């Protein structure tokens, strides 16, 4: 959606940025955040990047690795397009360790019998799996850093408005009976 790209532009002043995303809706949103002089956005696939070998100084997957059907192929593609000595990086929520922002919501939805969709490759969010993906792609000097983030909400209503606005939660809630939604709200409150 361009959020990470926007931060790169503000904090790093890169000479150029190219972003790749398969969803036209996300691309449209990103293009509204940043103009073409700040970043170029391309419709594409992380497992088949539309760039030549050694074209970039760095490649980053921001909260994406668990959405890539074949994470090893995605990491190998990033390694392919980065120059020797460059950086290949990612950051991800720990989907299995409770680090996903809506982990508690999804747990409570499942407890009420709702089917909650998951990204295709949540295993790729595990630190040891990510480290192996980088090493298996032939990358060296692989480092893993855990970042702990705390988010505070002014009220439950603010939290709830954000939660139901997230597509996966909203879509799942649309399949739930009103009584189950009331139960979910009470359990989360």
Strands side by side in the biggest sheet: 1-2
Question: What oligomeric state do the depicted chains represent?
Answer: single chain
Round the Cα radius of gyration to an integer and report it: 19 Å
Q: How many beta-strand segments?
A: 4
Low-confidence stretches: none
**What amount of the residues lies in strands?**
5-15%
For the sheet with most strands, the description reads:
2 strands, parallel
Structural class comes to: alpha/beta
Distance between the termini: 29 Å
Instruction: Kindly report the average pLDDT value.
Output: 92
Name the helix and strand elements from N-terminus to C-terminus, one letter apiece.
HEHEEHEHHHHH
Overall morphology: globular
SS field, number of helical segments? 8
> What share of the residues lie within helices?
40-55%
């Amino acid at each position: 959606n361009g959020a990470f790209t926007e931060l790169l532009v503000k904090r790093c002043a890169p000479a150029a940025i190219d972003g790749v995303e398969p969803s036209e809706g996300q691309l449209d949103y990103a293009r509204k955040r940043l103009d073409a002089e700040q970043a170029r956005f391309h419709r594409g696939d992380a497992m088949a990047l539309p760039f030549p070998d050694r074209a970039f100084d760095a490649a980053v997957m921001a909260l994406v690795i668990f959405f890539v059907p074949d994470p090893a192929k995605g990491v190998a593609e990033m390694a392919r397009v980065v120059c020797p000595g460059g950086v290949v990086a990612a950051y991800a929520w720990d989907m299995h360790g409770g680090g996903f922002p809506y982990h508690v919501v999804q747990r409570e939805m499942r407890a009420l019998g709702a089917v909650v969709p998951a990204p295709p490759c949540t295993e790729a969010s595990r630190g040891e799996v990510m480290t192996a993906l980088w090493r298996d792609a032939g990358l060296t000097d692989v480092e893993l850093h855990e970042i702990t983030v705390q988010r505070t909400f002014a009220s439950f209503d603010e939290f709830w408005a954000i939660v139901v606005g997230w597509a996966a939660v909203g879509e799942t809630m649309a399949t739930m009976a009103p009584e189950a939604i009331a139960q979910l709200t009470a359990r989360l409150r």
